[in-house]
Amino acid sequence: MRITHVVVTPSFAGTERYVVEVATVQAAGGHQVAVIGGDPTRMRELLPPEVDWLPGDTTRTALASLRRTGRRDVVHSHMTKADFVALAAAPTTRGRRFSTRHITAPRGYGRAARLLAPVVRQALTAEIAVSEFVAQHLERRPEAVLLNGVRSQESGPATRRDTVLVAQRLAPEKDTDTALAAFAASGLASRGWTLTVAGDGPERVDLERRAHGLGLGDAVDFLGWVADPADLLAGSAVLLSTAPAEPCGLSILEAMAVATPVVAAGAGGPLETVGLVPGAALFPPGDAAAAGRVLARLADDPAGRAAYGESLRELQRSSFELTGHVDRLEQVYRR
């Protein structure tokens, strides 16, 4: 098939990472694949030579790039702007159009976009949600729910750093403040543990002040945006995810793949991933005290922590493997 993925951003974050991984597997399977959008340096660096990359940092640029690809069998858009671009280019591409809803927000942010959203939805061959949680929040039921998949990996090292890792955008919807408060409540800082925050965003300055106010001092390390968090995920003792409405959680799945124990807010997408493991380390969203108790319990039980991580890895391999995800996606294309 001739497949084009469209994501109208100049950035490289979870959605762009997902597109790179899926496009790579599809190209390896013999499809003719193009990707439009995302950070030029990172996309060119990570996509294999057989995948064409075209610029798409703005709606206008993405539309020109998509028209340049000519006729396609599948145009797969990711996020609202890409959906509009795919519809506008339809007379040129003529392909079947699919949209993945990566978040729960309504399609379109302005009044005009909201008015056009039903037209965009009606013109799709199929809409795909990244979790049942997302599906339940959309304007209408999607044709498919496909939770993300990631590449299976070897387990991380047997001896890991005494570090709690937070790997997420520092924005309100991620509730990183609860991560800081949970780490403080756990008492792990006084035992030599550290909290590593990998991510950037509008809340970073306030969060750094908050960490200081909690008396965490040198026990918290704000790394900023990390291009490749693989080593952090594999070497940390625990991944902490605090978003109260996480759509799916790519970093969670990547942690599971290397047997890193995950402590997550018990809501949204994590209930459909981490939550499937008996005894999953979940806490009520926003409850820093409860999250702190879970962190302390895991820190006190290295053997139990390792066993929990291996259970998560087994689940990832059986249910959230990238190749299987792409197979299911292509079944949706062919319906």
TrEMBL record:
Keyword terms, alphabetized: Glycosyltransferase, Transferase
Keyword Transferase in annotation: yes
Location of the Glycosyl transferase family domain: 153-311
Transferase recorded as keyword: yes
Domain Glycosyltransferase subfamily 4-like N-terminal: 14-150
InterPro entries: Glyco_trans_1 (IPR001296), Glyco_trans_4-like_N (IPR028098)
GO molecular function: glycosyltransferase activity
A Pfam family annotated for this UniProt entry: Glycos_transf_1
Name assigned to this protein: Glycosyltransferase Family 4
Gene source species: Klenkia marina
